[in-house]
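Q: Focus on the chain.
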Amino acid sequence: MNTIPTFEEWKERAEKISIGGEAFIDGKYVAAAAGERFDCISPLDGRVLASVASCDEEDVDRAVRAARRAFETDVWSGMAPVERKQILFRFAERIEEHSEELALLETLDMGKPIRYSLTHDLPTVVETIRWYAEAIDKVYDEIAPMGKDELGLVTREPLGVVGAVVPWNFPLDMAALKFAPALAAGNSVVLKPAEQSPLTAIRIGELAAAAGIPDGVFNVLPGFGPRAGKALGMHMDVDMIAFTGSTEVGKLFLRYAGESNMKQVALECGGKTPNIILADVPDADIAASEAAFGIFYNSGQVCTAPSRLLVDEKIYDIFLEKLLAAARAIKAGSPLAPTTEFGTLVDDVHKRRVLQYVEQGQQEGADLLLGGNSADFENAGCAIEPTIFENVEDTMVIAREEIFGPVLSVLKFDTHENALKIANNSHYGLQAAIWTRDLSTAHKFARALKVGMVTVNSLDSYKQVLPFGGVKQSGFGRDFSLHGLHKYTQLKSTYISL
């Protein structure tokens, strides 16, 4: 990857790329039991990328049975940690070797610029697998403090069969955040990618096998949520569901768990990140640039997108000028062009949904400062212009609901207390950002903000060493860090009288 392919080279590769759309169960690619399929359509030009197996209850049961058999026979769970570590390292290497192919599939599948698929998504996937592989033989069990004639052991054990249900906005990135720690802990995994973007998940099935992951340990089931996703959530032999996606669907998995075997559920759901710019912002140009990049990165299809910009009235006018300049400087265009920073939405259904929010914002009385219209990038019809509203009240729908698109709501505040009140006036609680020179103010805001992650003078929260997740209706459970590994284990206490 020393030389990034040109626009023309990417286009030529895109025209030639071919991938099968079968499920990956028990170490091999198989058709859906019922023979049903669906078309995977690219938002770039509307062409069919692959005919994909549409899995249902029978396929879920096949995959879970394979995963359970692999777990109970100890081919993976009973393997020495250092051996699992080496296999996961090889898995990461296989993905890295195929990173350009996988990055192109991500871009064709959901419309994100190839520069980010190649330089962010795929390196993050590789780093995540390697990080958890390295952690495998660094996590120790415990000895409880007890009397001299007794011994108390606290050991961590893998849960068993983990169902990982992931979204379409960062298809392989979000998948790795689930399967890497789950596999590292010794579990078997059944991965259900989003129906809008299943191709990279399908492709890495054979890369996992080539790396030496035993049959049945890693399975991939493409299909639709109401069938494959629900069947996984309801299955009596699945020990945990790890889900990233909408709050609405997250609630369904809680219901499925209660109606089946009370399986564990970890949820990373929606967000409505408040990005708070205080009057003493250290560098208004940097803050404005990050605010624009943050909301328009991946066309706003990010759970932590800073979609609520709260600006102190003392600097409001000058900051808004800087924001608009930064937004206009973002290069929109074909996702296959290496210089493109702003691409398409995932499909036409989602585009119509986002445009409805834009229309609703105008009806509610917010002022449209920028964008708000459909865009056409090299015949990619699923695009919307970067969009900014001002004079937004925190009671408006565009300030309260997760739009999951390139739509920014700008709100004004007069005091720190009102800024916190606006920021916390949300049923989401995933992330918040605060910009200030004052360390005391930063700490006070961080403590008062009702979210799972706070960033200060930055919007970058994705660090392997920091746990990531939300509160309120943004879910519970954490990805990243050793906390992301521990959630795929259960504690066992053993008491021995000496």
About this structure: The first strand starts at residue 23 and ends at 25. The two ends are 60 Å apart (CA to CA). Residues 27 and 209 are 6 Å apart (CA to CA). The domain at 7-269+475-494 is CATH 3.40.605.10 (Aldehyde Dehydrogenase; Chain A, domain 1).
